[in-house]
Amino acid sequence: MEKKTAGGSALILALVVGVFLLALFQNCSRHDEGLDPGSAYLLEIQREALGVLSRHCASCHAPHITEMNSVGDILNPEDLIFNNFIVPGEPQNSSLYLLAIDGLMPPEPGVQLTGLELEVLHNWIYALGRPWENESDAEEE
C-alpha cells in the first residue's frame, strides 16, 4: 500500500510540475498571434515585397545614393507612400508597380521581375489600403 501512495504522489508531483511548466512557457509563443488576420497578412506580404525590392531595386534606390535617385529609400514604405510612388490600395495608380510591370524598372537589359514578384508587389500595395479595416469600421457604426 505504501508503493501505491508513493506512486500516486509521484504522479501528482509530475502533473503539478507539468502544469507549472506549461504555464511558465505559455508566454514564449510568438507575440504576433494576437494580430487580426489582415495585419498578419500585411506583415507577411510586406516582408516578401521588401525582399523583392531589396534584391532588384535597393542597389540604385538607397538613401546613400543621391545621383539620379528620386525614390530615396526604396525599402521604406512610408517614404514610398509620402513621395507618391505607392498609392495604398491602388497598385494600378502606383508608379512603383507600373514601372515594374512595364519592364522599365529595373533598367538593366534582360533583368525583369518575375510574374510572382510582380504579384507580390501588387498584393502588398493593395494590402496597404487595408480594405478590411474600412469594412469593419462601417459595421461598427
Q: Describe it for me?
A:
The chain has 141 residues and is mostly helical. It has one domain. The protein contains six helices and no strands. It has helices at 2-25, 37-56, 77-82, 95-101, 115-128, 131-140. The chain is elongated, with a radius of gyration of 25 Å.
Describe what is shown at a glance.
Helix content is 57%, strand content 0%. By secondary structure, the chain is mainly alpha-helical.
Topology summary:
Elements: H1 2-25, H2 37-56, H3 77-82, H4 95-101, H5 115-128, H6 131-140
Helix pairs in contact: 2-5
Keywords:
6 helices; mainly alpha; 141 residues
Distance between the termini: 67 Å
Tell how many strands the DSSP assignment holds: 0
Q: How would a crystallographer describe the biggest sheet? A: none
Number of domains: 1
- How would you state the average pLDDT, rounded? 77
Helix-strand string: HHHHHH
Number of helices: 6
Low-pLDDT residue intervals, each spanning 5 or more residues: 27-32, 134-141
Overall helicity = 55-70%
> What is the strand content?
under 5%
Evaluate the radius of gyration.
Answer: 25 Å
Structural class of the secondary elements? mainly alpha
User: Overall 3D geometry?
Assistant: elongated
